[in-house]
Each structure stands twice: as structure tokens, then as C-alpha cells.
Amino acid sequence: MSEERPFEFGSEGPRVIVAGVDGSDTSMRAGAYAWGLARRNDSRLILVHVSPVAALSTLTPGGAAAMREAADEIAQELREELERAARQGPAVRHELILERGDAATVLARVADEARADMVVVGASAQAGHRLVGSVAVRLVRAGRWPVTVVP
């Protein structure tokens, strides 16, 4: 998944960008921002959608199936947005990764595996994240890549 390249002083910008997209307005803006940045810098863009694993959903009848269906709908919406963006302008080398798990953990792993130069995520709109910590805060605390948070 990673391509070897030597360290280069004075490089023009990021070569590999990882962006987290979950279908929310802020994440879609983050994806659009990352797309534009990748286009301008001729960077490789890895868009990552992480479906949460909710243990309680498996306890209710049809809960797990409903979660899979919602994740499939978001993934289809993301594919359509990517196709639309690809038709509208210059080519951007991109891929969409779909996984289940904890968003911050999966994004960190993908960024490490791809040797990302930066990670882009949308700002969290959930009030509880002020106490527990948002995906963006957790990625910043990891301290392995610059993290851009798009409002």
C-alpha cells in the first residue's frame, strides 16, 4: 500500500493525504478540501469511511442489519460523490477504503500504512466529544502527522 520515496527538502506539499469521511456535512467538506488539496499538489488521496461497531445493535432484532444497510447507503453516496468529482475536473489519484471499527484507530492505521503526509477530518458536531475527545483530537494527540480539521 505504501510507495517508497526518499525524503526531499523543499517538497511542494503532501504526497499522500488521508481523509476521514462519514457522510456528515463536516466530513464531506473535509473530503472536498482534501480532494482540492490533492488535485493542486498531484497527491494521492485516500478517503476512509469507518462504520462504527455498536455492540448494542446486535442485541436488538435487525439492529446489525440496519447498521450494515446504513453503512452501505453512505458508502454508495460516497462513491457517487467521487464519480461526480472525477468527472468535473482534472484527475485525482484516489481510493475509497471502507472499514468497520473505531474511526480514530482505523484512520491512524491507514495513515501509518500509507505513510501519509497529512490527515484531514471534519469537525465533530457531537457535544459529548468535548468530554471524551473527538476523532480529530485523538489524531492530533497521536502526533504522527499534521491533522487538518475542517469546520
From TrEMBL:
UspA domain span: 15-151
Signal peptide extent: none
Pfam families noted in UniProt: Usp (PF00582)
Chain coiled-coil ranges: none
Family: Belongs to the universal stress protein A family.
The protein's name: Universal stress protein
Origin species: Actinomadura vinacea
